[in-house]
Amino acid sequence: MDINFNKNEDYNKLLVSDLKNRFAKVKLGGGQKKIDKLHEKGKMTARERVDYLLDKKTKSIEIGTFVGEEMYEEHGGCPSGGVVVKIGYIKGKQCIVVANDATVKAGAWFPITGKKNLRAQEISIENKLPIIYLVDSAGVYLPMQDEIFPDKEHFGRIFRNNAIMSSMGITQISAVMGSCVAGGAYLPIMSDEALIVDKTASIFLAGSYLVKAAIGESIDNETLGGATTHCEISGVTDYKAKNDKDALDKIKFIVDKIGDYDKAGFSKTESFEPKENQDEIFGILPKERNAQYDMLEIIKRLVDKSEFEQYKEGYGQTILTGYARIDGWAVGIIANQRKLVKTTSSKTKPTEMQFGGVIYHDSADKASRFIANCNQKKIPLVFLQDVTGFMVGSKSEHGGIIKDGAKMVNAVSNSVVPKFTIIIGNSYGAGNYAMCGKAYDPNLIVAWPSAELAVMSGNSAAKVLLQIETASLKKKGEKITPEKEAELYKEIKSRYDKQISPYYAAARIWTDAVINPLETRTWISMGIEAANHAPIDKKFNMGILQV
Prior knowledge:
20 helices, 20 strands
């Protein structure tokens, strides 16, 4: 019996249990009372609409479940950013669905709502994936209009994207299933086809109250912009639906007629489960974020048949590189090795012990070459992050760590094949960048509940911040006792630890999701399938390299 394994297992399964509890809470959106009110009006909730639209008994992944978590609390909060986004299948065709949640401030747009909608469109554009909008929104949340209305990546970008996507031939279908007002009215009408639900939905640039105030005209909302008005008088919408289910059935009917797509041509064979038990991931992954473990054992539990062919196995061992298949799809894996490794000695080069999770000049060099190889062969890349950063010190600097690190960053930046990033543990500093962090446009980026994202670890940061804080207080003439110092440290570390949580990152869309480790294969597989909709039309070119 391995006591450590059992301790790790208990700890990591508790993290997954916490994940499930958080998800159960966020699924309620604005709360059960608001859900009941929708049902009384004969309307479905955003999640019910999405689930009805997607094919039964098929896999799906949800983007941005925890967006907005613990944000805007002074405004009543914004669970899931007030919008539900899922990638799934409609009549066997992979699509992305975006549904406003009317239980959250009547579906009004907070700043983070705009960011999440733009992320959904970004995924659609990048993968040429059909997108379905289920509209039920009161428009911009007025108390925060300055943070959502005027800038480049704000509300207006949505409609610009509608136009760009249309010119790219990406299918866009909208169903207006509730309010659709002001600037938001352009979204469904800039889609290829627009549906509207009779009696419960309306579209107008200004509602009856504003019309009365602006021009003195008295008119009810249904006559102003209801289904009959837009389907029979204005011609703004294309289909009238009797109720929510009828609208969703019509969407299914339309999607079913979409022709096949041009394929990128990534290698796909029969899918096999890993030979090693996937549940053992929970016992292998250590509770302490600075503890050692063998990343190879994690990889074996993620890939088909547990088969992983290593590239340059004996060189640059703090990064594992190699080929495998996940759900039948060929992938190139780049993963941080977390155990202490020993280099091979020679007459000119003594043996060196290298810390796990650290990128050295040889491992950066190896990873750059492997990324180039995968681009040559049209193989999607999977990054498994548990990285504390690049090696520091005179030996590393003299060995050219900066130029080798720059080479790796260059390779990641210019890579043209799909990239998927899984943050397993630490994701610190420049290590996050080199291992394809959010800034490097991974097709999807997700975190396990064990992940931490920050410039540096909580302990290191707290010590630095404590020094700054104590120096400042001493300048003001305050006496710092050991007790006061300990209290300050605890306060600083607690604040910092909150910021490095995977949920803090997910709330701000620095990652697409926090996932159960056992869902990793599904996310990568569906991500590659989505990417296969978009043939690669850009040549791989790394540009100038400092060698």
